[in-house]
Amino acid sequence: MENLNRIELIGHVGLVKVQEVSKDCEKVAHFQLCTIYKWWHKYDKHWVIETDWHSVTAWQGQKGIDFKAIEKGKSVHVVGRLKMNRYVDCENEEHISYEVIASKVEEAKDE
């Protein structure tokens, strides 16, 4: 069986940072994506809302990436792979963070 690393998210864009990374004006966007999960707590009889923020990296010019959709507040559909990053801080403590490396970013369709 082949390996699979795929993540698909629909949410709202938060903070956006765009950087030029080459002489050819190639750009990369690093942005936060907010997703909300809502479920009914059957014992306490109320709705529980969980909000998660995801770090996403998207390269301009890559097929499937609509750079115009990456704007604060917009609802977007992101498909990509999950990448784990490990680093050691100045106090010699190891940290782990996750980011989505996008292969597709487009405005989310209202259904």
N-to-C order of helices and strands: EEEEE
State Rg.
Answer: 17 Å
Number of helices: 0
Query: β content, as a range?
Result: over 45%
Computed structural class = mainly beta
Strand order of the largest sheet: 1-2-3-5-4
In words, what does this structure look like?
With 111 residues, the protein is mainly beta. It has strands spanning 7-20, 27-41, 46-59, 75-88, 94-107. Strands 1-2-3-5-4 form a five-stranded mixed beta barrel.
Summarize the structure in short:
The protein is mainly beta and 111 residues long. 0% of the residues lie in helices and 64% in strands. The protein has strands at 7-20, 27-41, 46-59, 75-88, 94-107.
Key features?
single chain, mainly beta
Question: What is the strand and helix layout of this fold?
Answer:
Layout: E1 7-20, E2 27-41, E3 46-59, E4 75-88, E5 94-107
Parallel strand pairs: 3-5
Antiparallel strand pairs: 1-2, 1-4, 2-3, 4-5
